[in-house]
Design goal:
Blueprint (H helix, E strand, L loop, with lengths): L3 E6 L9 H26 L2 H27 L14 H29 L6 H22 L7 H30 L4 H28 L9 H9 L4 E11 L5 E9 L5 H16 L5 E8 L3 H5 L2
Parallel strand pairs: 3-4
Antiparallel strand pairs: 1-4, 2-3
């Protein structure tokens, strides 16, 4: 029997609105805050502020790399890179996770050293600077709220910024405590808490980005649901050789073999494929290649 191949590249890929401006605003605001934290942190010798500054600087770098990746994603494909540069968004997410792990180690190392040698700190100044951080991180996070469920990099940016706002809130509390109690060991303790907060989000980011880098099935794809939906279509007897992978942090691709009823004619084959394409688009599959076979095909019978 003749094998029928269908390649589908649909225009209904996920639309990410105002992404560039969100990243630019986020980069500028967070970099300015990093400068403030470094200047104040060095002047008052606050490890919690310097740790948060280091974390925020990593976030600035992550936002910049993510912006670059989104720009590269729009570059047209060519004979050497037939999918274009979409996958740079996945590589950037993986790189961001690795850099964050290094920063966590540095923060914990310095915090343990400072815990054994606490120094007097101006709690009021620390609380004021951290309060500014809450406002900046929360405002920046809102810029990514709309698109956070459509892309791994954007969701990562949103979660990081919200975590940063929470960390800043913790530093405010620590500053107030130091004002009234002189418990200066609170500063390195807060730094360790910051590191643990970062670790939680970083571990998830690393797992997700590593899976996509290895062409694993994206988290928003349910293979069993795809099989179930395909078998609901009249004329499809079986479905096999399903492969789903991520082209980027917001686009997925799939190849699949359909086993069709022998009574279907050429027009019916097209109708079956069109219906499956329509359903796949609503299950987060933007690019697909469909091969059709018939139930009496020797290759189907012997599973060759």
């Amino acid at each position: 029997m003749e094998h029928n191949h269908s390649h589908h590249d649909h225009s209904h890929s996920i639309v990410l609105t105002n992404v560039n401006s969100s990243f630019v605003i986020g980069i500028v605001l967070n970099f300015l805050f990093v400068v403030i934290e470094v200047v104040v942190g060095l002047s008052v010798k606050s490890l919690s502020l310097l740790s948060d500054a280091g974390h925020n600087l990593v976030d600035v770098g992550s936002l910049a790399l993510s912006l670059l990746a989104f720009r590269l994603m729009k570059v047209k494909s060519n004979p050497r890179y037939t999918y274009g540069y979409r996958k740079t968004t996945i590589l950037v997410a993986l790189f961001n996770g690795a850099v964050l792990l290094i920063s966590i180690g540095a923060i914990i190392y310095e915090a343990l050293h400072r815990f054994n040698n606490p120094e007097p700190l101006p709690g009021k100044t620390i609380a004021i600077v951290a309060g500014i951080g809450i406002a900046i991180n929360f405002i920046t996070a809102l810029l990514f709220f709309k698109n956070k469920e459509n892309d791994l990099n954007i969701k990562s940016a949103y979660l990081h910024l919200m975590a940063d706002a929470a960390v800043s809130a913790g530093i405010v509390v620590g500053g107030i405590v130091m004002m009234y109690t002189n418990w200066f060991w609170i500063d390195p303790v807060i730094s360790i808490v910051i590191a643990l907060v970062i670790l939680g989000s970083t571990w998830k980011l690393l797992k997700d980005s590593l899976r996509l880098s290895l062409d694993g099935v994206p988290k928003n794809i349910d293979l069993e649901k795809i099989k179930t939906e395909a078998l609901k279509i009249a004329g499809i007897k079986n479905i096999h050789h399903i492969h789903v992978w991520a082209l980027s942090t917001s686009e997925n691709a799939m190849t699949v073999h359909l086993v069709l009823d022998t009574t279907i004619d050429k027009k019916g084959v097209k109708a079956v494929k069109d219906e499956l394409k329509h359903r796949l688009l609503h299950m987060n599959i933007q690019h697909m290649t469909i091969e059709t076979e018939f139930a009496d095909d020797p290759c189907v019978v012997t599973n060759c």
